[in-house]
Please model this.
Amino acid sequence: MIKAGDTVIAGVSGGADSVCLLFILWNLQKKLGFEIKACHVNHGIRGEAADADEDYVKKLCERLRVPCRFFHENVEWIAKKRKQSPEEAGRMVRREAFETMCREDGGTKIATAHHRDDNAETVLLNIARGTGLKGLCGIRPVQGKWIRPFLGLDREQIENFLIEQGIAWCTDATNEEDGYTRNRIRHNILPALKEQVNEGAVRHLEELSVQAQEVWEYLEKGTEAAWERCVEIPGQKEQEEKSRTSEHMHVTGDRVRGRYESVHIDGTHLKKEMPAVQKMLVKECLASVRGSEKDIGAVHLHAVMDLFDRQCGRKLDLPGNVTAERTYRGVVISRETEPGCTAALEDEIRLNIPGITVLPDGIREVSCRFVDISEAGKAKEIPQKSYTKWIDYDIIKCNLSVRTRHSGDFLVVDDKGSRQKLKSWFINEKIPKKERDEMLLVADGQHIVWIPGHRMSRACQISNRTEKILEIKITEDKRNVRNDQGTDPRGEG
Model:
């Protein structure tokens, strides 16, 4: 998990598990030759109690001389914005904070205090909600740079250690409530299993989880080999060129595979594979085209598998604007253009990302490049009214293009996601009617990402949740480069 020279970002909430993790790492750092940095996330839910936890972590880290960063997030607002439960939003916010600190503070590993009971809860929760083999894997001890050193310990062992050492910890009152699904499993289901079925239930769930992980890894390797035998990429050279850019990637297990516009699965070769490998391969093909495994369920896998036995031309609509169509040789899975992303006028030009796009006038050109996330803080140094902008590329839904205005165009004008019609913005800013039809816009479908020389959409601003930064620069010919011209002391509206 840890080797000499590592910098370990430890998640420290102030609770027993994370405090114990901090002390264990602190005691091991000189012996193993690594550095610890702590990360604390205040969710903005428990008011004074959360502030007290933060203060405790701050004093503890000062006493141990461990550097610590504190993140403050409004999880309830984020949950509403992302249409998630507060529990899920809180988990994602913590993960994003750990990733941010790892990236910005030179971290090589991220350590969390998940233990055996947490893993048992996760496996039971996955079973109850409906899961395949992957859900039985539960929490992995090592996954990329993420490590969970306490998975072999239970909650009682951790608390007993702290009591023996005379170490205090904070208690989160919400952990005692049954409002969250995980808490109901913790307080009701697991105790009943241990008391009424088998006292070794938690240990047995852990053993099942480890066996599932081993089988899963075996299947992953089998699926990777089956990909080479069964999958063809139409226009492979062009698709792989796009796949090499960072916006065309998705992670499968611990592997990174290119994101493709379409893949073709050979039906004859697929039927020679074991059933489990067939399903995993189809799921990976769907994820490769869609960009993620999110919302791909068993019902979608079965529907695609059934398609291999249907007549040529039969077609399925799947989540994320993905379609599957029966061909003479198998099934082609492809991504369709999202509604509102189709060019409506001849003057719309799709940007080369990364690369340079020369506009029809032969004078102006648009250059795009990806910026290392470690430079995110420099985004504020770019003048507001300029011809260079850094945007959060994660929020782009369609394909960025440059064009003039279309009916239905809008801007996002605040952090709540409020929209304003482009026409209304023109009127408010007193842009002459003659200029409106000629003004250059950078658009994502009907969403106006940037009005060069004026303002950009608030939705595209760099935040601590940004993972990909795209720089867009508009210049005229080399005799008259228009870059970062002027500033607007009032900001962006």
